[in-house]
Each structure stands twice: as structure tokens, then as C-alpha cells.
Amino acid sequence: MTLYSTDREILQTAVDWLNAGYRIALVTVAKTWGSSPRPRGSMLVMRDDGIHAGSVSGGCIEEDLLARYKNNELSDHFPTLIDYGVDRQDALRFGLPCGGRLELIIEQPESAVQLNTLLQKINDGELITLRVCLNTGEVSLHKSAKVTEFQYNENEMIKVFGPSWHLLIIGAGHLSQYVASIALMLNYRVTICDPREEYQAGWDIEGVSFTKTIPDDAVRELKNHERSIVVALTHDPKLDDMALMEALDTDMFYVGALGSRRSSDLRRDRLLQLGISQMQLEKLHAPIGLAIGSHTPPEIAIAIMAEITAIRNNI
Question: Is the CA virtual torsion 203, 206, 212, 217 positive or negative?
């Protein structure tokens, strides 16, 4: 069982187990103190025979949590709140670093209906807010207009599901398959844009949208989307440059292009001649990716997503 999973994988696992007749519980990290290994909103699903998917502590307290659930030692009423690492002795006993502390919200869904609805909306690329009333146990879904931070207080827990970042990849080549696969694991909504007929037939990655539209038109569709990223990976100026021109004229979070330093310098010259300003050009990440000595497509894909992740984390 994968220890770290995306929200979508955890929800799908929960649905599968419910449909198979297991009693399950969903666990969410509600609050952390100290050096907790997992951020707020992290999820785990566990079933009554001790099997689980996901993680709420990086492996520190999962064994104890699973044992308590299996032995019906948690609560007779859900949702319920559990505290781990309240004092330093407990923190050391459970392996929480630096006296860390966790508050966990545990829910016990009785059917898969609402989880199926949530999954369908996530798969359709929607942002959905899940609200859990901690007083009544009521769980409700609401359409979300934008990404908001995880929220928790004595009355409710609010978490937004769905693709908070949208990655548009220009080009359906070999490298794009690796970039798309990594991005999916990081919970991006991924769109591949390539109007070239010869590149369309071989594209087959579940969860990735494919568009045959002209690249600059595909970029225009993202102009008003929060947290949009465009990476141009075709090596064809007719496709890459038009997409980059459009992307650099927006407030997109990240715009990058594949190529050596020499080809990147030539691209910058072309974009300047096409009317892109020097200030706009400074937003272009080219050569794309962190300098980790990558040569193969998988290594280059790691470098690309690592750079985007570092910038997202203000590193």
C-alpha cells in the first residue's frame, strides 16, 4: 500500500473499500504544532482489519491509530477528535520530532454515495469544498470559486478538493509524458496541447486532457485561472514561441521553455522581435528546470517539476 497518496487516490480507495463491505474511517490532520511531518489537511483512510492508505504523520502514529480503530477504542460517535503528542513523553513515544503534536479529525462514512459525488467532481476538474460540522456530524459539498486554505475550528472543518494548480504542456512528445505523470502525482490538473496529428495517436495517460487547438489559443483559455503554469516542450518555434508570447503577457505563476542556453538566448531574441518587452521576458524560465545534471527524459521531467515546486514553496 502506498504510504503517501493523493486525495483522489485516498477517496477512491475509501469508495472501493466501502463497496466491498468494509467499515472504514477517514482521518484528516486538523492542526499541528512543532515539527509535524505532515501538513494540515493530509488524509488517511483505514479499514477495520488494519489496512490503510495515505499518511497523517509519516509513519509515527499510524500503527497506534489503526490498532485503536480495529479494537473499537476511538469513539462511538463520529466525527471525533484525537490528540497525539500532547506532552513531550507522548511525542517521544510516538516518534513525533521535536515534541510535535497532532490533532486529527476522524469520520466514519456509512456509504460511498457522497464520496462518489466528490470523486466525480474532482475527476471533472472542479474545485469542491467539503464542510464537516463537528457538532452535528453533517457533511456537505459546495462548489468552490477559488482555492482556499484548509480551515479548522471547534465548530467545523473545511477542505477544498480538486486541482489547485493547472499545468498546460505544449507538445505531446516523450518528455511531456514524464512531466505529466509527475504532475498528476502532485495533484495538478494537466492539459497537453499539440495540434500535430502525428503526436496525437500515441498519447494515452489517464487523467490528462488533450487539446488539438493552436497553442496560443490554449494559453488564452487559462488567462483567468488562478495558479496556471505553462511549459513549452516541443523545440518547435512555431508552436512554442506563440504560446510563450501569450503566456508572458499574463500574470501566470510560471512560464518555462525547454532548450539549451544557446537556444534559449535565440528564443529570447525572437520574442523581443515579436514585441515582448524585456520586463515580460524576465518571467521566462529558460533553460527550464533545476540544474541537476539531467540528461534523460525522466531526469529532465524531475528537474522541471522540482523547479516549479521550489518556486511554489518560495525557495
Answer: negative
